[in-house]
Amino acid sequence: MSTPEQQYIKGFNHGYLLTKHLPDLVAKLLKHIKSATSDYLTGFYSGKEEYELEKSKEQINELRQIRDNNKDHDRDLEL
């Protein structure tokens, strides 16, 4: 028998990986689940949210890098 913590971790890992590789499937699955009623589902939601947060941070960093590269390029043109 697994402990609630082990169930949470298992759900977290599944939520993270499925969101990373099959986000449409996760959306369909969660559409039919009203609320997190178990440690596994709570972990699943948390894993999904963690992946989405990391992805958002990654996109923000990419945009900052593009912006910084454009600023450098604009400075070169002014000289």
Structure description:
Helix 1 (4-21) packs across helix 2 (23-31) and helix 1 packs across helix 3. It contains 3 helices and no strands. It is elongated. The mean pLDDT is 90. The chain is an all-alpha fold and 79 residues long. The protein has one domain. The chain starts with a helix and ends with a helix. The longest helix is centred in the last third of the chain and has 40 residues, at 39-78.
Average predicted confidence as pLDDT: 90
The main sheet comes to: none
Strand content is: under 5%
Number of domains: 1
Give the N-to-C terminal Cα separation: 70 Å
Strand/helix succession: HHH
Number of strands: 0
User: What is the 3D shape?
Assistant: elongated
Structural features:
79 residues; mainly alpha; 3 helices; elongated
Draw up the topology in text.
Layout: H1 4-21, H2 23-31, H3 39-78
Q: Can I get a quick summary?
A:
The chain is mainly α and 79 residues long.
